[in-house]
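Re-run with default settings, no changes from the original entry. Doing this only to confirm the output is reproducible before filing.
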Amino acid sequence: MPESDLSFRGCVISGYGTAAQAVDLPKPIRDFLGGLEYQGSLNVALEQPIRFKPERTVIPQEGRAYYWAAEINGLRCLISRGRGHPLHIVEVIATCRLRDELRLNDGSLVEIRVAPNLADDLTWDTRLIWKLFWGWGRTTWYASRKYRRLIGIFWLLRRRATQSPQYHLKLFRKVRLDAVAVCHLNLTRDSKLRGGERQTEILIQTLSEKKFFKQRVVVSRRGPLAQRLKNTDNLEVLLARSRLAALFACRGVPLLHAHEAHAAQVAHAASCLWHNKYLITRRLTKPFGNNWYNTAIYQGAQTVIALTACVEDILRKRFPGISISRIPDAWNPVSSDLEAATAVRAQFPGKFLVGHVGAMDSPEKGHEVLIQAAGILELRHPELQFVLLGSGKLEQDFRQQAEGITNVHFSGWSDVPSTWFGAFDLFVFPSLQESLGSSLLDAMRAGIPIIASSVGGIPEVVTEECGRLIPPGDPEALAEQIVDVYQSSELRQHMSQAGIERAKQYAPALIAQRHLDMYRSSVYG
């Protein structure tokens, strides 16, 4: 590189234990370097803080990291820095194992050269905050888990001393009230896409397609929605490390929509601090804690959206006098995958497939009842095959219960279970407790006959025309109904057509329009 290039000195440090291991680098990086004999990396702590310009990366952004062209001790390389990494830490990627090639150990000094105008000027407050957290001999502490926990509570300041991407929360920037019309909050940290998160995604994407207004969504960086929503049009996606971060993201938005319990707490706090109006979607039939905090949260909402009448009844008994509106879930617009359905059916040639979809985190989805029904029918009707789609902390227990029962198959987790419905001949849902069950809507839309428990809000969705209802926790009744539906192709055809017709009431566009009307009445009504 020319003499005019920027030059930085630093020392080699240990990282998280992966620098000496092979890593799976994206193809653009391998192509840029001309191949990698050894896919390793080297961590370097620079002598001074430097913020590199994200827009000057030589490779399109990959995942959570940025890449810039550089040289280290005369060798061509890439330097990388992830989102939120300290301003004095870089990772060096080269075509060889740098520790061996340059004979480096922890503490060895290296020189890194980059193109001119690659680094941003740091403001005085950024330098001060960096000095506070990482100066005075602590520059290599970033790899210490204990140190990260100690300074975690100061992240509002610490973010000034990190490589902050453009999408990070602009905590001190005022936003015009008309810039974002509604802010969705869903702070679940579960990496799997549950029903509530799937419904949040469907609503946001449907509103985005209609181009009604600009939306903002605040989600946990560990949750499943962060990646799924990042390319949605007319949507601002903010990742929050904590509820405190989510609270600041609510500034300047006239209306908040909380989609789960933690989000409701944040919305209430934002209402107290900045007078935001907020809505809450209540999905569960579980009882509320009898405390003043829950009362304040729900009484402070403009409206609480209940999925079904049973959820509404529970809300009215616990919080008399609050405003409640009933808006159900919508079916998943992702259609069945014919190729995937064909592959599933190929595993069970000549079988009548009885499908079930549900997380295996609690007994309330009725897996035990379903397994018992399968055991009853195993010898009487060997042509029946039960396919259970889902996973969770109780999966191993359910597998043990199904040991020796040959007509039960566990298919594991799928983020898009609706693509499997094309393979099912019958859908069973023997829940012991359920507010609605959005997978029932997907089954009806796919034209699959349904057998479900008569609990919670299920009878509001599954009518006698499109399905059969059984008492909860009764494997004998479930087995009997499965045989009746299996033996009558005429009955299955009738239930299929009735289900398709009933599913029209739960189309995403209709459900989104009802939410839109609610937003307008909450802000302007």
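The radius of gyration is 28 Å. Residues 16-23, 165-178 have pLDDT under 50 and may be disordered.
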